[in-house]
Design a protein that fits this description.
four-stranded mixed beta sheet, 203 residues, Immunoglobulin-like, alpha+beta
């Protein structure tokens, strides 16, 4: 059976509430369909999806740019698994409010507030439930008895803390790969050699 590997990227939602934009994966036999959903009832949002795959025939071909009306959905692309090939999929989404909201890149917490919350543990991991690298990191930490606190980014409070910490450090982008680590209050992110980084945390 073909195996699938997923890469996760976290997008800052500009003027958009938590979970208002979703990319839903619908599996039907060997066909995986990606559907964009706008859960907001007031905001019209433009979306761009950047897709990387192996082992799939995709239709239609990129680019994937569309506008979601309030409460609307859009079938973006179908991925048809090639027989006998391993499959992988990774994607990023970029989006902005067209109407019904305002953009912001401001930290919502002060540096002092962020420092206080990050001081709760020497190692904090910000994670997404769909992120395979997050699962790998947590398994490694547990197997090697390295203490840490997990902060799932599905929680609005954890998401606000992480983005505030980033912006307070001068981070200017609106996309970041998960997991994100806070090591003694200092953020570490977009890690290329994740296994090597985790090995370095062993005492």
């Amino acid at each position: 059976m073909a195996s699938a590997v997923f890469c996760c990227f976290l997008m800052l939602q500009l003027g958009i509430g938590q979970q208002e934009i979703e990319i839903v994966q619908e599996q039907n036999d060997n066909i995986l369909t990606l559907v964009g959903k706008n859960n907001s009832t007031t905001k019209k949002i433009s979306v761009k999806l950047l897709l990387e795959t192996t082992g799939y025939k995709i239709t239609p071909a990129p680019p994937y740019e569309f506008v979601l009306e309030p409460g609307g959905s859009y079938e973006i692309v179908k991925l048809i698994a090639k027989k006998g090939e391993s499959t992988s999929i990774g994607y990023q989404i970029q989006y902005a409010v067209v109407s019904g909201g305002q953009k912001t890149l401001e930290a919502k917490m002060t540096k002092e507030e962020v420092s206080e919350k990050l001081a709760s543990s020497d190692i904090i991991i910000f994670t997404k439930t769909t992120c395979e690298k997050c699962k790998f990191s947590k398994n490694f930490m547990n197997e090697n008895h390295i203490p840490f606190i997990e902060m799932p980014l599905e929680s609005p409070e954890n998401s606000e803390l992480m983005w505030s910490a980033l912006f307070n450090e001068g981070f200017e982008a609106t996309t970041i790969a998960t997991p994100i680590f806070a090591i003694k209050g200092k953020l570490v992110y977009n890690i290329e050699d994740l296994h090597g980084f985790l090995k370095g945390l062993e005492k």
